[in-house]
Design goal:
The protein contains seven helices and five strands. It is α/β, with parallel strands linked by helices. It has a single domain, classed as Rossmann fold. A five-stranded parallel beta sheet has the order 3-2-1-4-5, with helices on both faces. Helix 5 packs across helix 6. The chain is globular and about 35 Å long.
Amino acid sequence: MKVMRVYIDTSIVGGKFDPEFEKASLKFFNQVKHNRFHPIISALVREELVAAPNQVRKFLDELLPNATIVEVSEAALKLREAYLKANIVSKKSSNDALHVALATVNNCPILLSWNFKHIVHYEKIALYNSINILEGYQQIAIHSPLEVISYGQNI
């Protein structure tokens, strides 16, 4: 089985400690350990978690050695601006748009998030992908971990 590259946003890291998302998050991170997924983590995730509880920051530190780290690039900032100009999200949620842009410009086939308001929402996904196409990028699959984890007994 090929290891799948997935961009994980801040909510995925914190999801391990959220009772609502804990079970699926633990299964996802177990599958990361078993090389089903390779996490792509941005500098934005690290920045957003500076003020997070210690257990969340510590968990991120444990993830980093086995992840690919991507920096915030001019291309990602430009794509975020295109999303904002299209009113997919407001400026107040510009970091959510930046997560999508970072995943897109770094050629991640999948972005995982627990953010159902600004990222994992059928209307938003279609809009993000329409801007991606207009800006010369590939479409991106946006899902919650529930939609990508293996439900087999082995992992």
